[in-house]
Amino acid sequence: KEGSTGRVVVCDDRMVARMKRKHAVTEILKEELLNQGFEVYYQPIYRCKDGGFPVAEALLRLPDTPLGPIYPDEFIPIAEETGLIVQMTYLVLAKVCKFVRRLLDEGAKLEGVSVNLSVLQFMQRDLADHIAEILDYYQIPARFIKLEITESVVASNYEAVLSVMEKLAKKGVQFALDDFGTGYSNLSYVMHLPVDMVKIDRSLIWSSLNNDRCATLVEAVSRTFGQAGIRMIAEGVETGEQAAFAQRCGIELIQGFLYAKPMPQEEALPYLMGVKEL
Ligand code: C2E
Ligand code: CA
Ligand code: CA
Ligand code: CA
């Protein structure tokens, strides 16, 4: 008897601890939102054909907190659960546009910067207008901003997502389908959504090195999508072998620690200016 009640109590303690942690993280997110303390890191993305870094992905970072470092894998789900992600994303977009403005003013041959959109964003009726406003304010042509959405975002509310995407695509915003191969991998998404790029998830890239069948499928999908005019990005490339595999598949762009990690704006600048080539 003692043992079983003991276990219940342990379980309860953990739950309480988890709720306390979630509450504390939520408070930190609110605070950072209020004083715009979030930092946006940029991960330059390598282009195989010329070794340049024409694009980057914007990734949110929390500065050091009283709880120590807190990473996106923890705070993004909490931000989504609490709805804070909506305002956080607009903050990211504004910071990205400001950075892009600077890059363009300094003459960068930039293709664009991508920003992650969570599903909650699509529940905002004014999403397309709001994004247009931010672009306008910083005088950024829409094609410089690419929005990343995952398959699960699309699956959760296909009609709503499609209509917002079409509205934004008409304005010239480009879309990337993120984490491809981890979710539903629904071919009809790629066929019917205005998607310019597909990002092959790192799990597929990694598996391909010791799984021939996976490698064959990744190569076939990459080539087929490429023929349909969809640009391919390999994610999570950490080794030369993985990079060689991606190149063998004809994949145009490679994102991974091998070439560049996510870094503060000032460090990313030379990559995106075209100064830092490998
Ligand atoms: P994601 O969108 O798939 O972003 C790529 C993640 O892979 C980033 O993790 C990046 O640091 C990591 N990564 C890049 N290259 C490599 C590599 O070679 N090896 C490995 N192991 N990892 C690599 P990060 O920055 O920790 O972000 C994690 C996730 O949090 C993101 O996954 C995204 O889903 C979410 N996230 C981050 N920033 C934002 C944001 O501003 N808005 C939204 N909605 N989600 C965000
Ligand atoms: Ca992403
Ligand atoms: Ca991804
Ligand atoms: Ca991911």
UniProtKB/TrEMBL annotation:
**The EAL domain covers which part of the protein?**
22-276
Signal peptide residue numbers: none
Give the highest taxon in the source lineage.
Bacteria
Q: Indicate what this protein is called per its UniProt record.
A: Bifunctional diguanylate cyclase/phosphodiesterase
> What range of the parent protein does this fragment cover?
362 to 639 of 642
